[in-house]
Amino acid sequence: MSDSEYAIETSDAGASATIPCEAGTIKKGGFIMVKGRPCKVINIAVSKTGKHGHAKCNFTCTDIFNGKKLEDMIPSSHGTTVPIVTKNDWEIIDIEENGELTLMDEGGNQKIDCNLPTFPVGFGEEIRAAWNGGENAVMVSVQAAVGIEAIISFKKDS
After folding, report:
1. Is the dihedral of CA 63, 83, 153, 105 positive or negative?
2. Max Cα-Cα span within the chain
3. 99 and 144 share one domain
4. What is the pLDDT of residues 31-61, one digit of tens each?
5. How many whole angstroms separate alpha carbon 79 and alpha carbon 24?
6. Which of 23, 66, 93, 119 has a CA 20 to 30 Å removed from the CA of 38?
7. Pairing of strands 56-63, 37-46
8. Where among 52, 83, 114 does a domain terminate?
9. Strand-by-strand arrangement of the 56-63 sheet
10. What CATH number has the domain bearing residue 46?
């Protein structure tokens, strides 16, 4: 056996992208996985204990990456999953013609696997216009959950 057969491409601690949580403990403004998508809870309606003995939580949510409205109903004592959501600030170094970004954080680390956002419509072009071919310093906030990353806001430094 040669060493090339054991080449390890990435290192990962094996941590999960979601954590289990009881449905009754999730609050408005929190995050929940609905139909395999990370969502932010807009509203929770709790029904009373019924014939089968469980109060039900009716969650109204929006997908944190594409803004679609989703709903889910889960008994309050049953388990569900909550995505681990992170948010980091990066400075734009370069924007390619195809929308690929080169970003740098405060520590000097570069990120090249991010594209201009397509949601909401026109948001990517607003960022490109604010950056103005490198004339202005623009900071973007990148939100990540369950292996998906997207730019959610930007700020033009004066």
Report:
1. negative
2. 65
3. yes
4. 999 999 999 999 999 988 877 778 899 999 9
5. 9
6. 93
7. antiparallel
8. 83
9. 31-34, 37-46, 56-63, 69-75
10. 2.30.30.30
> What 3-state class would DSSP assign to 73?
strand
Estimate to the nearest angstrom the gap between the alpha carbon of 15 and the chain centroid: 17
Considering the chain, what percentage of its residues have pLDDT values greater than 70? 89
Q: Do 147 and 90 reside in the same domain of the chain?
A: yes
Tell me the per-residue pLDDT of 113-136, one tens digit each, with 9 for 90 and over: 889 988 888 899 999 999 888 888
Write out the two tokens for 82: 């909550």
DSSP string of 112-124, one letter each residue:
EEEE---SSTTHH
In Å, what is the CA distance from 48 to each residue of 10, 52, 76, 78, 157?
48, 11, 10, 15, 51
Does the N-terminal peptide bond of residue 120 adopt cis geometry, omega within 30 degrees of 0? yes
Q: Which of 126, 146, 144 is nearest to 82 (CA)?
A: 146
Residue 70: which domain range? Answer: 18-83
The three-point CA angle 143-25-70 to 5° equals 55
Q: How far apart are CA 140 and CA 90, in angstroms?
A: 5
